[in-house]
Design goal:
about 950 residues; alpha+beta; Beta-Lactamase; five-stranded antiparallel beta sheet; 28 helices; about 40% helix; about 20% strand; flat
Length: about 950
């Protein structure tokens, strides 16, 4: 071939829309490929790049595996072969499934020069692999032609033909849906697709008209308050079990998104939409979430759209936009991929026809239902007329008998041939006797029509055709057509004979019962007054109970009855009543009068016990108890389910438990809780009564008693152990002690016995103080002599403490009346504490000052003060100082090995205060027994001053005189 002709041929082949390639049979290397064929490959190749390459280097593996045996067969046999409409999915992301015509025919091999031009063929014979002979260098000419549009057109026509036949014929909805699925699979080549429809309420009597479905669904949502559900009406390739999938319509579903946007939804990668819920695909028996989804809405055609009318232009297609969304056609793929525009447009057009087919199937179903209902009504009308126990007569507009049932015939004595007779003639043939003879009325038709228009109902006496006496309630009414015109009248005879007889009998009994009812009414008034009195007594008893009482409903766990103490306990748990407006609304007008008698609602206190109790009624006690942390006697948290009230309401068991909780201010409240169920007449639990006893004070006393025994045991243990050690040393037979050593052991044991006796005396004194049984031996005392004696007794203490005592007292102090030894013990206790806390080398002051009356300046008493310059105390420490077994002194007592601390030596004649925590408690009790008060003035870093006043002897004598 001439070069000029070869170039022209190259240009022609490059411009063709058919792919052409020439392959060598020997090794399937490419000798030539035009530009159109190269554009179909996944990678970008230029003509010079493919020349000389093997076929398996260019095409995908799956294509090569299918093509290889076919190419070898053509090479070996020399026979041409062709394939039409070969499906190919290599262009899914851009075009979807494509269809091709492939022709393969043998030809002499061609070669190309360096410029890519085709040269002359060679016709030499060779034998390939010992098989049939072929030409040496023989080649294959492969042509590939795109038939996608042709196949799509054929499939579209087939799909539209099938769906059109479904629209034209009375095909059931399942059949229509199956045809839609088959058409979708053929058009887009997907093996996994579904039709998802929005459920519609079934109605056996009404036909759903196009255009009104969305309004009906909206009204259903407004009346029921719930969203409609969806279902997979038809499917291919989904995991089994999705037929029972009926979720509520929401934006987490594709149908919900489509209803919101009213347009096609394409999701190329479902992993980017994790919130969406999809049906699962069947992946070789395993469920799998789809990788990509195409969702096309199915619109309900309106009346105009059904006739080919109102459409909105959208590009090159006409898309209905006014109808409601019936559902969606959904196409799924396992992997993430795109959807070509022509495939999407094809499904959008098909969805219009699918909507018509679905609506047509529903219309046929509704029509069949209406036909069945009409036939049933026709049969039932006659049965109902004859089954009505009342006598029913239907007259036409000219008052001729149109229909009459058996009951009316028996009552009036009419035969079967009464249909068509005028009312006057029909009544003339009646054998019944009326209380008022209608025959005597001049114009009976006018009277009957007047009564019918007034819809009058009267009660008449009649003797029936059977000779029985009846009381009938007769009603007349007109019957209107759709335009409001009267086309018939109905007369109904209702037998009320038994009711009339009963009414007459009742009327006869009314007079006899009147006096009896009056007597019963009087008795009821008396019983009501007694009940109100009993209720008031019970209310008073409930309010006076020293425990909180509540009645809780089992239905809603709300309080129905509660007393004031119960409401106070709820407040201590943290319950806060409603605001002032709620409180004012809870107080009835005039309920709380002012002293002048007028009502002042604005000034009513918000914390009034009665108001708080009223507001507590109706609160949910379960929510409050679940919010409040309750502890058991062991300190572990007790959940609400294990508390007595829960047992009573849930299990119907009475239970008692000791619980405690911590108030918002940090104070612990101990409760003894009892709860018991109350049952209704049928045995069910109707409510429960719970009683809360506040045992906080009892628990405090119990802890004090435990502290008392613990302190006593601890304090008595040390001296007893010392006595035992010294006595055991003296009793040891293997040891010999000198007389001095024995004397020292006995002296040490004697000191411990003295300390032990002192502690026991303090315990006894504390018990007497607590019981108020402290006995005083009152006598006149000269304060100067008492202070001198006190200084002598404390000489050893003062010397060993390395501190000083300074007594400040005037010489003319008046005599006082007191118990000498008890006052000495109080001063000893106060001074010993002062020596403990005063700095080393400092001075402790004991002051005595007379107290005089005004204005006669008569002595009333003497005030004694003990002053130190120690660290002082805070208000919290002062509050704990005078309690029983207070550990304040022990916690703040200086260490025994601190430099400057004195050693307590043996003291005779002084009731020394051992470190039991009872010293100040007993001292205060002694001073209060003398009619005075032990006061304390202190502050951090300001030292401490203890003071009390003893009455003067002269003042007591004046009072006695």
């Amino acid at each position: 071939m001439e070069p000029e002709q070869s170039g022209q041929l190259e240009y022609i082949l490059g411009c063709m829309s058919v792919g052409i390639a020439i392959l060598n049979c020997a090794d399937l290397r490419i000798s030539y490929a035009n530009a159109h064929l190269l554009s179909l490959l996944e990678e970008s190749w230029h003509p010079q790049g493919v020349i000389g390459r093997r076929l398996d280097e260019i095409v995908p593996d799956e294509v090569y595996k299918v093509a290889l045996p076919i190419l070898q067969h053509v090479c070996s046999s020399g026979q041409s072969t062709s394939f039409s409409e070969v499906p190919f999915e290599g262009l899914l992301k851009t075009r979807g499934r494509t269809y091709w015509r492939v022709d393969i025919q043998p030809a002499p091999s061609f070669t190309t020069n360096r410029s890519g031009s085709v040269e002359q063929p060679h016709d030499k014979m060779i034998v390939v692999g010992g098989s049939s002979p072929i030409y040496r260098g023989s080649a294959l000419i492969v042509t590939v032609e795109d038939q996608t549009n042709l196949v799509h057109s054929r499939l579209r026509l087939k799909a539209f033909h099938n769906i059109s036949s479904a629209i034209a014929g009375p095909l059931a909805l399942p059949g229509v849906l199956n045809r839609i699925m088959e058409a979708v699979q053929e058009m887009v080549g997907s093996t996994r697709c579904a039709v998802v429809l929005i459920d519609q309420p079934e109605d056996d009597t009404e036909l759903h008209v196009p255009g009104f479905e969305e309004q009906a669904r909206a009204e259903a949502r407004n009346t029921t308050g719930t969203a409609p559900t969806i279902r997979v009406a038809a499917q291919r390739g989904l995991y089994p079990g999705w037929q029972d999938w009926h979720p509520q319509l929401s934006e987490q579903l594709l149908v919900g998104r489509v209803m919101r946007d009213r347009q096609t939804l394409i999701i190329t990668n479902t992993n980017r939409e994790p919130e969406l819920e999809f049906p699962l695909l069947d992946d070789e028996g395993f469920p799998r979430r789809p990788g990509s989804v195409l969702c096309v809405p199915i619109f309900e055609p309106s009346a105009e759209e059904s006739q080919g009318g109102s459409f909105t232009s959208n590009g090159s297609t006409l898309t209905p936009m006014t109808g409601a969304v019936l559902g969606t056609i959904e196409v799924y793929h396992r992997r993430a991929r795109g959807f070509p525009a022509e495939e999407v447009e094809l499904l959008k057009q098909f969805a219009q026809q699918a909507g018509l087919a679905i609506q047509n199937a529903r219309l046929f179903r509704g029509i069949n239902r209406l036909v069945q209902v009409a036939n049933r009504y026709a049969r039932q009308r006659e049965n109902i007329m004859q089954a009505i126990p009342d006598g029913v007569i239907i007259y036409d507009a000219r008052w001729r008998v149109a229909d009459v049932n058996h009951a009316a015939r028996r009552l009036l004595g009419w035969s079967e041939d009464m249909i068509g007779l005028h009312v006057t003639e029909a009544l003339a043939r009646s054998t019944a006797v009326f209380q008022y003879d209608l025959k005597s009325i001049p114009d009976i038709v006018v009277e009957l029509e007047r009564r019918a228009l007034e819809r009058s109902i009267d009660e008449i006496k009649i003797v029936g055709a059977d000779g029985q006496h009846y009381t009938m309630r007769r009603s007349q009414a007109p019957i209107h057509d759709a335009l409001g015109n009267i086309f018939a009248f109905v007369v109904v005879y209702h037998n009320v004979t038994e009711q009339a007889v009963a009414r007459e009998r009742i009327e006869a009994e009314v007079v006899a019962r009147t006096s009896e009812l009056a007597q019963r009414n009087q008795a009821l008034q008396i019983a009501k007054a007694a009940q109100e009195l009993e209720s008031a007594r019970m209310q008073l008893l409930l309010e006076r109970l020293p425990s909180g009482v509540m009645l809780v409903s089992a239905a809603d766990k709300r309080i129905t009855i509660i007393n004031n103490l119960g409401a106070q306990l709820l407040q201590r748990m943290g319950w806060v009543p409603e605001g002032k407006q709620a409180i004012m609304a809870a107080i009835p007008s005039g309920a709380i009068p002012t002293p002048s008698g007028a009502v002042n609602r604005a000034s009513t206190p918000a914390d009034d016990p009665g108001v708080i109790t009223t507001l507590a009624v109706g609160i949910n006690i379960e929510e409050l108890l679940r919010f409040t942390t309750m502890y058991g006697s062991s300190g572990s948290i007790i959940p609400y389910e294990q508390q007595p009230l829960s047992f009573a309401l849930s299990n119907g068991e009475a239970k008692e438990a000791e619980l405690h909780f911590i108030q918002p201010d940090g104070q612990t409240v101990f409760l003894l809780v009892n709860a018991a169920p109350l049952r209704a007449s049928d045995g069910t639990i109707s409510s429960a009564v719970t009683v809360w006893h506040d045992i906080t004070q009892l628990k405090t006393l119990e802890r004090a008693r435990e502290d008392f025994f613990t302190t006593m045991a601890h304090e008595l243990k040390t001296p007893l152990a010392n006595i035992r050690v010294h006595v055991s040393a003296l009793l040891a037979k293997d040891l010999e002690w000198s007389v001095q050593e024995q004397h020292d052991f006995l002296e040490a044991a004697d000191e411990q016995v003295e300390r032990l006796v002192g502690m026991i005396n303090h315990f006894l004194d504390a018990s007497r103080v607590e019981a108020g049984a402290l006995r005083l031996e009152l006598e006149p005392i000269l304060p100067a002599e008492m202070l001198e004696d006190l200084q002598d007794r404390l000489e050893a203490l003062i010397t060993s403490s390395q501190r000083h005592l300074e007594i400040r007292a005037p010489a003319d102090l008046p005599a006082v009346v007191a118990d000498y030894e008890l006052i000495m013990s109080v001063l000893t206790n106060l001074l010993s504490n002062a020596f403990h806390y005063a700095p080393e080398g400092d001075t402790v002051f004991l002051e005595a000052e007379p107290i005089f009356s005004m204005p006669d300046q008569q002595p009333l008493g003497v005030e004694l003060r003990v002053i130190d310059h120690g660290p002082g105390m805070t208000q919290e420490q002062q509050a704990q100082l005078f309690t029983r077994f207070s550990t304040f002194a022990a916690m703040r007592r200086p260490s025994a090995d601190r430099p400057g601390q004195f050693v307590i030596e043996r003291r005779r004649g002084v009731r020394w205060s051992p470190p039991t925590g009872l010293g100040l408690y007993i001292s205060r009790g002694i001073i209060e027994a003398h009619g005075s008060t032990l006061t304390l003035k202190s502050g951090p870093g300001q030292g401490s001053t203890f003071a009390f006043i003893l009455p003067a002897a002269s003042a007591i004598k004046r009072e006695v005189g």
